Amino acid sequence: MIPLQGYSLITSLYQYNFQSEEVFMAMEERVWTGCDQLSRWWKEDLNALRDAMWFNAGHPVKISFKKETACSNTVKQLLVKSGLGSAAAMLPYLEPEVRKAKTYISHLETVSPMINKVGGGRYKWETLFEMMAYLENFPIWMSKEIVTVNNAPTHLRSLDTREKVVASIKEYCMRNACNIALYFGFYMVMVEKGDQFDGAKNLKKVYSLMALKKSHFGCYLTGTELFLDYCAYKAKQSDTTGVSRRMRMRDKAEEETCK
Predict the structure, then answer these.
(1) Which tens digit of pLDDT belongs to each residue from 100-133?
(2) Where are the domains of the chain?
């Protein structure tokens, strides 16, 4: 109950209301439906019992603690191990903008090494990586509180709350959406052709990336074409390697003849 209330407080400012009830519904279905008698009792006065369980029962617990548990991956793992995976489904809480940026980073780390080989090195992502690392200094459950970061980069010092850092990350992702869509086009063709590569292999149906395909389709197409350049590059490298190998074999044969 405590982490669920924390999630509700972060997302809706209330410990329990209609906006966050889906989080609690999953828990109800998991626990109450397992016993017919308990399920019937629960449904007899549903609203009153929900109010008592999901709202009033948690009042003695500090709000800051509730929010902290909602953002803890350790709490999520403990719930799963206890057989309460339904309660952990929405945990730990992470801002949608940050969740999206994490997906982008996983995607960029997978594709960048290959795109850089065919002239894609002009796309620089250091700023996104830097801001995401900087964000680690700010607790999720205290988004508006000012935090002093020791030895913070000069250009990031004005971002003194998590809320400001998240807003900056969101703005960066929006500004670079076309380039990320280009990378996604490259990735999709690579996956569809069954190429072997290191990195994330399960991004084909990720909503945030699929949305970029729709909103920046021209850039996405450019990415698919860039993959053809990459294939040509690999073929050329393979051919060069083959020529070098044949030359070494010829030289060795000549050496044997001279002996």
Answers:
(1) 999 999 999 988 888 887 766 667 899 999 999 9
(2) 2-88, 96-236
